[in-house]
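User: Could you check the structure of this?
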Amino acid sequence: MPSGLPGGARWRKMKTVDAIAEKLDTKLSKWKPEISREVRALVSQVIDAADNNTLDVMRSRAVEQEVLDQLDEPASR
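Assistant: Sure, the predicted structure tokens are below.
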């Protein structure tokens, strides 16, 4: 399956992906089991969203939390 990238760029991209996967694998084995499970679930959601071309519509957890925090704040009037 052609990637559309020239050979050198494709190789560099694969090395980057390999480094990320290796770092994730190392971290998953060091974190508490519940944290590792949560990270695995989040990564799985991101992969599924990318496969379905829906990454752009995923809500950012940080933005969502900011909105919730604002809703919880007492009215300033």
